[in-house]
Design brief:
By secondary structure, this protein is of the alpha/beta class. The protein is built from 13 helices and 13 strands. Helices cover 38% and strands 15% of the residues. Helix 3 (49-59) packs antiparallel against helix 10, helix 4 (71-81) packs parallel to helix 10 and helix 5 packs parallel to helix 6. It is globular, with a radius of gyration of 21 Å.
Length: 372
């Protein structure tokens, strides 16, 4: 078609984001009954019962548009975070906040910096808006803040730091982050993506984005209800930022971008602190148990401040992934992140984790060691 000639090369060159395989597809493709999914870092305990009930109540009002300002959800976030409504922007998942930031601050001739490996959506959103991606390798599995500082140019507008990092599960040290900020020009925003922030133990030496709202307007923090709060299917995220930045993002936000049941469920999730505490207890207890058992299988698990764990199987991860699928266990092979022998797993329920361990034990026996 003639129209295709007018599509810019930076759009044609985009590679679609690779989502985890849905449970339904595995059932259809392999005929597996009762598969488990440990690939997308979801809450293995499911959503809060309070959130589900709030969502159900919202269904009776589906003929009405949602509150475009999400006033009541913002109010509850303000009480929890200690910020004003003008400091919060809501998104259809935190991915949409990344989109807003790129649409406002990135264009042809400007650049954004992210790390490798990190969340793949950063570079994709920058490319969609015609900007240049500058990618800096992690150092010792952590964001290399010194190298990122050196990579800043007069055209740099955004720096994306997922903290904790996906897929490594590591965090930045607060003192290093503060020194990093002190060296940055005022023309650059630092986006602290705290998608897994709830899983970070209190007292961990790492910056907490909300603390910078009034201290440094260059810091924008992203949060989501998809992980610890178990609402991935509803897509609710939010950004915490200086009011001058939020006003710009509100200009590009579509009206009614967070639907009515999602707003109600998010309010219920915030209310149900018991469910959140149970989620965190399960996560840390099971992570410790999994580490010990995985080491016994001859693999190398890595420490993590999230609800997932990176594992070096010392074997072709693609083969591990395929054979695990046939046993009804969906995991993530990490070749796309540059780790051909690594897999990533979500921390599941005790029953799911035991099934994973049993399946992995059998699969490893069938695949030779890489280079062996």
């Amino acid at each position: 078609m003639e129209i295709l000639r007018y599509v810019p090369d930076y759009i044609k060159e985009l590679v679609p984001y690779p989502p985890g395989k849905p449970i339904e597809e595995l059932e259809r493709q392999y005929g597996v009954k009762d598969p488990i999914k440990l690939a997308s870092n979801e809450n293995s305990l499911g959503p809060s019962p309070v959130a589900v009930e709030r969502c159900r109540q919202g269904l009776s009002r589906l003929h009405r548009y949602p509150d475009g300002s999400a006033y009541y959800l913002k109010q509850e976030l303000c009480r929890k975070l200690g910020v004003a409504q003008e400091n919060i922007v809501l998104g259809n998942g935190s991915n949409e906040l990344i989109d807003f930031l790129c649409r406002v601050f990135i264009r042809a001739g400007s650049s954004a910096i992210s790390s490798r490996p990190s969340f793949l959506v950063y570079t994709k959103m920058v490319q969609i808006t015609g900007g240049e991606n500058i990618v800096v390798d992690l150092k010792d599995s952590v964001h290399d803040l010194s190298a990122i500082s050196r990579a800043v140019t007069h055209d740099t507008r955004l720096i994306f730091l997922d903290n904790p990092n996906n897929p490594m599960g590591t965090v930045i040290k607060k003192g290093e982050f503060d020194r990093f900020l002190s060296d940055l020009p005022d023309s650059v925003l630092v986006v602290l993506d705290e998608a897994y922030g709830e899983f970070v133990h209190a007292g961990t030496d790492t910056p907490r984005g909300v603390d910078y709202v009034h201290e440094d307007p260059r810091v924008v923090t992203l949060r989501t209800f998809s992980k610890a709060y178990g609402l991935a299917g509803l897509r609710v995220g939010y950004g915490i930022m200086d009011r001058h930045i939020s006003q710009l993002l509100e200009r590009v936000r579509q009206p009614f971008n967070v639907n009515l049941p999602a707003q109600e469920a998010a309010r219920g999730a915030l209310e149900d602190t018991v469910h959140l505490e149970e989620t965190l207890r399960n996560n840390w207890h099971e992570m410790g148990r999994l580490k010990n058992e995985i080491k016994k299988l001859g693999c190398q698990p890595f420490d993590s401040h999230t609800n997932f764990m990176l594992i070096d199987t010392f074997r072709d991860a693609g083969q591990v992934y395929e054979l695990m699928l046939r046993k009804g266990v969906i995991i993530r092979a990490m070749a796309a992140y540059g780790f051909p022998t690594y897999i990533r797993i979500t921390i599941g329920t005790p029953e799911e984790n035991q099934r994973f361990l049993s399946a992995l034990s059998r699969v490893l026996e069938k695949i030779p060691l890489k280079g062996g």
